[in-house]
Design goal:
The protein is α/β, with parallel strands linked by helices. It contains 21 helices and 22 strands. The chain folds into 2 domains: about 350 residues, no CATH class; about 180 residues, Anaerobic Ribonucleotide-triphosphate Reductase Large Chain. The strands form 8 sheets. The chain has a 6-stranded mixed sheet. Strands 1-13-16 form a 3-stranded mixed sheet.
């Protein structure tokens, strides 16, 4: 019998390997050399430093960077974009569709706010007809993405958002209840503080478009409808949009109404994601012993090189649209995050759901955040601050005002190279490539399970996977499973949200996370997840309960034969994390 394929090698070979590369190290050196070209006479020095940063997969650049840097192709190195405003006209809509197609074709996912489109039935004064509404036009985007996929383009991931006071909000909420609809979209409702206040007071809620009132609904009924759809079909998620804008360090010069497809980077029109993750399992010293610890000094030591690497991506990347280049270089937004958190917690002898684990995770994010900000003001001293930097306005922001005094002093003196520095992505494919470490900040799915991957080359392919921490445990000759290995099914929704809330104070972008709950969860318990997310100060929430529309997309061993459902984006069969922390 043929040995089962190794998923780490498979991911590298099918997603990131250049034709002449014999090993992952070859890919890392290619990326390091390409990103060091902007360093002039220091290119050789920074090639070596960037390559060292990636040794043993301690730091893993985002997938577009790994796949595209140094390949000589006209592709973007940035994972995702939020597109420009959609003008409420046929020429404007199709211009926005074209811009999205160009972006998807070159490997970038897209986020779009459809709130600017008039509701179904509204008069179209120029033609005498009536409008078909935002959901109808979203089907154009979905069909476009499907068509691009048939040409061999990378699978198109999209996020669509709509304001909670748009007259078509109910149709938007129900848009993915039936299988096969808007399959390339994640959906999120923009929830305002005013709506949450009206819902909790049991008040009516007015739906309107511009200055035209449409109808009034009970806020509590609309909230229930949103959450019932999420309970039944895992869509939509919610964005607490006022909180996102209030905490945005650039709130003085931009307004946000959408995120990238997985939600870890709320972005203004034409904004872009520039991502990379530290693999926390590589920072655990003496794992599974009483002396186990997380090497925060090493994390802090390596962070400046990661900041510089991602900053250089902005100068070396191709951009599908000139507006995207202008926005990216005007703010120099980057997003350094972590992956393998849950496995690192197990290796430290802790339980993901306990307060001690949250404290360790928080210490890692605090270290990363502060080291990144110190590196960025030093880089601004060398290369200049991002063009949109306004010292007084930036320092007055709620997030920046909480930073240590030495960082604020450094920003005041030198400016900052990057407007944003921290984002926690799902990191799905790169986590598989790192030996199946737990993705991002998600709990471990299961000790052993079967995962189905859909590829253009071979169709549906199955992998039998062992969790990274369990594999390390067994490699040391131990039997059974580590004593603190708990899977997502064993961790309460409250504990998952509390982990996210513990990390948010050190994340200036956002956190991608899906709160996973078992299928028997009652609707009332499910509803409380979203209320708690709002009360904990999160930027949004997405929860997933296995259901008839999506099924259970990962399975513990044993599992049924290959499932016919397609992957939504990349390699993951599990819905991408989209809760905003």
């Amino acid at each position: 019998m043929r040995a089962p394929p190794d998923i780490a090698q498979y991911v590298w070979r099918t997603k990131y390997r250049a034709p002449d590369e014999a090993s992952l190290r070859d890919s890392q050196v290619r990326v390091a050399r390409a990103l060091a070209t902007v360093e002039g006479e220091g290119a050789d020095l920074w090639t070596a430093r960037f390559a060292d940063l990636m040794v043993d997969l301690k730091f893993i650049p985002g997938g577009r960077i790994l796949a595209g840097a140094g390949r000589g192709r006209a592709v973007t190195l940035l994972n995702c974009f939020v597109m420009g405003p959609i003008d409420d006209s046929i020429p404007g809509i199709f211009r926005a569709l074209k811009e999205s197609a160009l972006t998807l074709q070159q490997g970038g996912g897209v986020g779009l706010d459809f709130s600017s489109l008039r509701p179904f039935g509204a008069p179209a004064e120029s033609t005498g007809g009536v409008a078909s509404g935002p959901v109808s036009f979203m089907r154009l985007w979905d069909a476009m993405s499907e068509t691009l996929l048939s040409t061999g383009a990378r699978r198109g991931a999209m996020m669509g958002t709509l304001r909670c006071d748009h007259p078509d909000i109910e149709a938007f909420v129900d848009a993915k209840r039936a299988k096969g609809r808007l399959t390339h979209f994640n959906l999120s409702v923009q929830i305002t503080d005013a709506f949450m206040a009206a819902e909790r007071r049991g008040e009516p809620w007015a739906l309107s478009f511009g200055k035209r009132p449409a109808k009034t609904v009970a806020a509590r009924d609309l909230w229930g409808r949103i959450l019932r759809a999420a309970y039944d079909s895992a869509e939509p998620g919610v964005l607490f949009i006022d909180r996102i804008n209030q905490l945005n360090p650039l709130r003085y010069c931009e307004s946000i109404s959408a995120t990238n497809p997985c939600g870890e980077v709320p972005l203004p029109p034409y904004g872009a994601c520039d991502l990379g993750s530290f693999n926390l399992v590589r920072f655990v010293r003496d794992p599974f012993t009483a002396a186990a610890s997380l090497d925060l000094e090493d994390l802090a030591r390596l962070t400046p090189a990661a900041v510089r690497l991602l900053d250089n991506v902005i100068d070396t990347s191709h951009f599908p649209l000139p507006e995207q280049q202008t926005t990216a270089r005007g703010t120099r937004r980057i997003g350094i995050g972590v992956t393998g958190l849950a496995d690192a917690i197990v290796m430290l002898g802790l339980d993901y759901g306990q307060a001690e684990a949250r404290e360790v995770a928080q210490s890692a994010l605090r270290t990363l955040c502060h080291a990144a900000y110190r590196a960025s003001f030093q880089l601004a001293r060398e290369k200049g601050a991002f063009p949109a930097f306004d010292r007084d306005a930036y320092l007055a922001g709620p997030f920046v005002s909480r930073l240590p005094e030495d960082i604020r002093d450094g920003i005041a003196r030198h400016g900052l190279r990057n407007s944003h520095l921290i984002a926690i992505a799902p990191a799905g494919s790169i986590s598989l490539m790192a030996g199946n470490v737990s993705s991002g900040v998600e709990p471990i799915f299961a000790p052993e399970y079967r995962r189905e991957v859909v590829t253009a080359e071979s169709g549906c392919r199955e992998f039998r996977l062992t969790d990274y921490a369990l594999a390390k445990w067994r490699a040391a000759g131990r039997g059974g499973v580590p004593p603190h290995l708990t899977s997502g099914a064993d961790i309460t929704a409250k504990a998952q949200l509390e982990m996210q809330a513990a990390l948010q104070p050190f994340v200036d972008n956002a956190i991608s996370k899906t709160v996973s709950v078992p299928p028997q969860t009652s609707f009332e318990a499910f509803r409380r997840i979203y209320d708690l997310a709002y009360d904990l100060g999160l930027k949004g929430c997405t929860a997933f309960r296995p259901n008839a529309a999506t099924g259970a997309v990962l399975a513990e061993v044993p599992a049924p034969p290959c499932c016919p459902l397609r992957a939504r984006a990349g390699l993951s069969r599990r819905p991408q994390g989209r809760a905003r922390g």
